[in-house]
Design brief:
- The protein has 467 residues and is of the alpha+beta class.
- 53% of the residues lie in helices and 15% in strands.
- The chain has 14 helices and ten strands.
- The strands form two sheets. A six-stranded mixed beta sheet has the order 5-6-7-9-8-10.
- Helix 6 packs across helix 9, helix 9 runs parallel beside helix 10 and helix 10 packs antiparallel against helix 11.
Length: 467
Amino acid sequence: MRRAMTLRVQLLALQVVIVLVLVCTTGLVASTLQERQLREAYVDRMSGVAQSVARLPAIHDAFDDEDPAATIQPIAEVIREASEVTYVVVTDEHGVRYSHPDPEQIGQRVSTDPSVPLSGKVWTGTQTGTLGTSWRVKVPVFGDAADDSTPAPVIGTASVGILESELRADLTDDRGWLLAALAASAVVGVLCAAWVTRLVRRRIYLLEPEDIATLLETRGLTDALRSQSHEFANTVHVISGLLELGRTEEAVAFIERSGHGGLLTASAVAPGVGSPEIAALLLVKAITARERGVTLDVADESALDTPTTPDGSALHTDALIVLGNLIDNAVDAAGPDGRVRVLLGTEGARLCLQVDDDGPGIPAALHHQVFKAGFSTKVPGDREHSRGIGLALVRRVVDRRDGEVVLGTGDLGGACVRVELPVPAVAAGGRARAGAGAAAGVGVGAGVGAGGRAGVRAGAEAPEARS
């Protein structure tokens, strides 16, 4: 079985993913905005140059010369070099060039469509011309109007552009600082994530979820031992008082009664359970339940062998988590003078754990919510911080083991929870002899509604909650 990822790795990986996603998203947005601003800045520059060329009197007057290019070409080149653009091209109304960075292109028609500026409108965009793909602006060049009521005619165009390669080079230079800042942010974020992970782990004393579950069981054992110690002290005080009063016969009778009805042993609680860990858990839970006025019974047909393989021991460890939390929930639901019944054994290749009580039960509408962490139907109180944990731990074990959990109503009238965990193949072979007898006890008349197990699966109040 593949080892589960540790809590430390999970916390660190989750935070690192969040940091990287945020940094990458920020970088993408910032890069997009940067490119947009750069293009807008170039458009403003190119529009200003193009409008200046189109309105320059020397350019305007040269259109009437016999050789306009002789005047326009030098002026256009001076403006191009001064404004740091790739080209400044002036054409007549037919698109024939009067200026160009390559003198051989003068006198030839432009390679791109000049219809928009010749119609009197400004055009901005990316086109591929003789110098390559460029980001360009084209504006009309107006002649003189015949009179004030007649619009000025378009006598040519002025086109100014910058190569896309130059624009990308400028953008790359600017992005260098952005990428450096993003990389620094990512490093700081990862270091902070590692620090937070370390802090959280120290707050929970470097424990894993499984360790926390074990501690919860240990706390239950401590409470049970404390309760038994308190009960024993009371018993000693009564015996001491009877002896002080000279009531020897009454003291002996009290000792006999205490020894018969007051002492709990694992064999008395679960005689058919051979697993020492589960038997000890049932003993502890019985003591704790009795202190709270609840009767905890283990069905006589319950039977479980001692695990003989590592896989079997691991399964029994998970069974301890499941059984302990189910019993705790049942005892809470039953309340004073209540009753809880436990049935456990193997059925085929599955370990079956079943706990029912005579409490108010779980409404059918909440069957799929009670397994969520933090959800609880209990009234808030002093232990409110620990509510909504038990069944969530049960569901985690069931999911990890690929098992099944079923909610329903049992013979006691309250909630009934049945958990089935697949037995590993090696472990299953080791307990084959006990399987048949245990299966008969678990599968027939187990005390779960009318019809035993079928009552849980098919009953109107018992929809399944599968892993």
